[in-house]
Design brief:
The chain has 145 residues and is of the alpha+beta class. 23% of the residues lie in helices and 34% in strands. The longest helix has 21 residues, at 32-52.
Length: 145
């Protein structure tokens, strides 16, 4: 994954670090990053759903796959870390969110690059479902690079 361009369609989430997230070396524990990605994704999808009227995007999703690449250790500190995320692919019954966990200042430093494939799920019927036209339209506005 090569995420060095900063597309216009990136959603930015400022993720606070918690004291308990660090290991003995003062680095954020690798296991915590998946939680950070989820926090950023929920923020992203809630906002998107609300703005674009695609309510099922908020809740009716299952994670089909996570890919995480650790680029550099993140030292615990009081300031939040920046997470940029965007939609990289939309298929009939799944879509993919890409992320970069980084600091933009003093120079751009990427700690993690990640990708999640999400599948819409109809919890009432207990089955996978296709992406609706409203959702597709909402998601397509967020396709970035």
């Amino acid at each position: 994954m090569d995420h060095h361009s900063t597309g216009e369609n990136r959603h930015v989430y400022h993720c606070p670090l918690r004291w308990g997230d660090q290991d003995a070396l003062g680095h954020v524990n690798n296991g915590r990053y998946v939680d950070y990605l989820q926090d950023a994704r929920v923020d992203f999808l809630f906002r998107t759903a609300k703005e674009l009227g695609a309510d099922d995007l908020e809740t009716g999703l299952l994670v089909a796959r996570h890919e995480v690449q650790y680029r550099a250790p993140l030292h615990f500190r009081p300031e939040p870390v920046r997470i940029e995320l965007w939609i990289s692919e939309i298929k009939a019954a799944s879509f993919t969110v890409d992320y970069e966990i980084l600091d933009a200042e003093p120079e751009r430093t990427t700690y993690v690059e990640a990708r999640t494939r999400l599948v819409p799920f109809d919890f009432a019927a207990n089955r996978l479902r296709r992406i609706s036209p409203v959702e597709r339209e909402a998601l397509s506005k967020l396709v970035g690079s």
